[in-house]
């Protein structure tokens, strides 16, 4: 059953999908409409999930589901991945590519291949003060404390230690 994202519990499980480009207003409206319909019928082990979504920074789709009392199994997550794969195809954008990290470069979001991170840090293109998006977070409450951090406070901190 669909519910507004802000009404989901802070403990709700989330998935962050990063588009490979900024989404237009029409695309964001389309995503919201299609995702709302999907979440209305999303179930785990036959039980409806309280689930919501939001789009952040014109590039991140965040899906949340209240998993209190309902285990979100692998099949349920597979349905979400299939839905997002179809959405990627319909919008001609990649929402499932985990090989890129997003950083805030001045005022723009820039995507960087994981394979380039060490060299970019070595060449000071990414500094300890560069803001990084951590799309591997698991709970809604983490959106406010662990999702968008300076690199020195993120998983990248190990590259800045001497």
Q: Biggest sheet: strands, sense, closure?
A: 4 strands, antiparallel
Q: Strands of the largest sheet, in order across it? A: 7-6-8-9
Taking Cα atoms only, what radius of gyration do you get, to the nearest Å? Answer: 17 Å
- Our count of helices gives 3
What does it look like?
This protein is an alpha+beta fold and 162 residues long. It folds into two domains: 5-91; 100-134 and 147-159, no CATH class. It has three helices and nine strands. It has helices at 25-41, 74-91, 117-122, and strands at 13-18, 43-44, 47-48, 50-56, 60-66, 100-105, 108-113, 131-133, 148-150. The strands form three sheets. A four-stranded antiparallel β-sheet has the order 7-6-8-9, with no helix packed on it. The mean pLDDT is 94.
Outline:
This protein is an alpha+beta fold.
Write the layout of secondary structure elements.
Layout: E1 13-18, H1 25-41, E2 43-44, E3 47-48, E4 50-56, E5 60-66, H2 74-91, E6 100-105, E7 108-113, H3 117-122, E8 131-133, E9 148-150
Antiparallel strand pairs: 1-5, 2-3, 4-5, 6-7, 6-8, 8-9
Notable features of this structure?
26% strand; alpha+beta; globular; three-stranded antiparallel β-sheet; four-stranded antiparallel β-sheet
